[in-house]
Design brief:
Blueprint: H1 4-16, H2 19-26, H3 30-44, E1 49-52, E2 55-58, H4 60-84, E3 92-98, H5 100-105, H6 107-117, E4 121-127, E5 141-144, E6 153-168, E7 185-187, H7 201-204, E8 211-212, H8 216-225, E9 228-232, E10 242-245, E11 251-261, H9 268-294, H10 296-299
Parallel strand pairs: 3-4, 3-5, 7-8, 7-9
Antiparallel strand pairs: 1-2, 5-11, 6-9, 6-10, 6-11
Helix pairs in contact: 1-2, 1-3, 1-4, 2-3, 6-9
Length: about 300
């Protein structure tokens, strides 16, 4: 590659696997990107992508070049971070990927506090009902509910969190599991559960869901209308008309993890952001879960 700009274009298309997917980040139109990739391949005398209606797939050479280019990019990021190290506070842009439960009910408070202490820092929250793809640099780091099994990634456990069955406070009391029958169950769309840790039906003893969404926030709104469902304790303070039910019989524990590129562990800037995210989420889960516990008695 002749220059950094060629590498930037190549990496964006390789990660997006299409010209249209790479165009927004590069602020170029797909036709221009197509010409840039064609020019790059001519200069190398080799094919980097297999083009098809489904997109741009890397050839074997393209995959090797992507890995090398990604390493070079990581070193450039480290060099930039060292240059910014002398400034007061954190600067630049950070994108954090997360499942929408954490993205809706935890990260807004956590990120606002971090940004308030670092006015020159721009924080973006990428809320997705699926696993964030760090290898394609969809985000700088990601909050997950399971540690990844593969990839050049490092994992830090953030905290455990609790989930319980919840219903409207003005619904008739549920005294036993048998009372669940006949009530519409709210949960995930079964074929869109992207992590086994999000499959709660076995714990609930339900055969299926009558009201479903791939979004935790939408599920919460559904329960506010009618029905019952498994809810994060840290989300309950945002829906005061709901209460936890059958607390002693149905109680789930899951964990959050912070996942990062291994190469980014050398970046003091990203290490500081990661530490702040971990401490912030840990503290926010504890604070909100305490509120959820305190509201049990008055609602029951």
């Amino acid at each position: 590659m002749d220059n950094w700009d060629d590498m930037r274009v190549f990496l964006a298309v390789a990660r997006a696997e299409s010209l249209s997917g790479a165009a927004p980040a590069l602020k170029m139109d797909p036709a221009t990107l197509g010409r840039r990739i064609a020019r790059l391949e001519r200069s190398l005398g080799a094919t980097l992508f297999v083009k098809s209606p489904q997109g741009y797939a890397l050839t074997d050479l393209g995959e090797r070049m992507r890995d090398r280019a990604a390493e070079a990019e990581a070193h450039l990021v480290l060099a930039r971070d060292e240059g910014q190290g002398a400034s007061s506070g954190l600067t630049g842009q950070i994108r954090i990927g997360a499942p929408d439960g954490a993205a809706n009910f935890l990260l807004p408070q956590v990120c606002a506090a971090i940004q308030a202490e670092n006015p020159a820092l721009e924080i973006q929250i990428l809320a997705l009902p699926r696993v964030v793809n760090l290898s394609r640099r969809e985000a700088d780091m990601a909050v997950t509910v399971s540690p990844p099994a593969a990839g050049r990634l490092t994992v830090q456990r953030i905290t455990d969190y609790k989930l319980h069955l919840a219903s409207r406070a003005d619904d008739p009391a549920l005294a036993t599991r048998e009372d669940i029958r006949g009530k519409p169950v709210v949960g995930y769309i079964p074929d869109m559960i992207f992590d086994k840790e999000l499959d709660y039906l076995g714990d609930l003893g339900a055969q299926g869901v009558q009201l479903a969404s791939n979004s935790v926030a939408v599920q919460l709104q559904m329960i506010r209308q009618s029905g019952i469902g498994i809810v994060h304790d840290f989300a309950l303070p945002f829906a005061p008309e709901l209460r936890r039910v059958l607390v002693d019989e149905i109680s789930l524990t899951r964990s959050f993890y912070l996942v990062r590129h291994t190469s980014d562990r050398q970046s003091d800037r990203l290490n500081k952001v990661a530490k702040a995210i971990i401490l912030g989420i840990h503290g926010e889960v504890a604070r909100l879960e305490k509120i959820a516990r305190l509201t049990d008695s008055p609602l029951i």
